[in-house]
Amino acid sequence: MRTLLRYGLATLLALAVAGCSSKSTTTPSTTPTASPTPGVSGDSTTVTASSAGQTLSLTDQSGNVIDFTFPEAAGTVLLGTMLTVGVAQTAPTGAPASIARRVRGTRGPLTTGTFDDFITISVTQSYTLTAPPGIVITGVTANPFVAGTYNVQLGQVGGSSYTTLGTATLANNILTYSPSANGTPPQLPLVAGTTYIIQISM
Fold this sequence. Notes:
Layout: H1 2-24, E1 44-48, E2 54-59, E3 65-70, E4 82-88, H2 99-104, E5 116-123, E6 127-129, E7 134-138, E8 150-156, E9 163-171, E10 174-177, E11 188-190, E12 196-201
Antiparallel strand pairs: 1-4, 2-3, 3-7, 4-5, 5-12, 6-11, 7-10, 8-9, 8-12, 9-10
């Protein structure tokens, strides 16, 4: 009986030690996981729309940093309205044919020149901007912008054509589109369920 008891105690002790060592190897990590900052290094961001206007930044596939200045709203922005802005260097599905491409008379893939950025804008509830957003694109040193005319056009997914908004100026490898450069800019109604496209191309 004593031998059995001694054997049983030894077994229980061994199991307890094994249990302790297994717990020590599965301690959960306490290192916090950083969340990505929207709109800084990605190609799209969604934020709460502001009636007072707001500034957003994105980066296109070439590494160019794009700053958007959305003007104040012409009226009320309903509470909870979300604004989504994206940028790509290829036309989104359903985009109208480019004015630049039509003038050149080319067919096939969209290749309007040496530069194309397509900015998409959508909202969850309709409101109107007092003007199109101002746009500043800071080019990367390794891939500078070439001298020339950079057209700024407005269209929408599912639309048949673009409307010319003006041109962007180039200085020190920075492209700048100012809506008020050619007088009072038009208001820009943003309708929920519609994706608007601003194309900047050379």
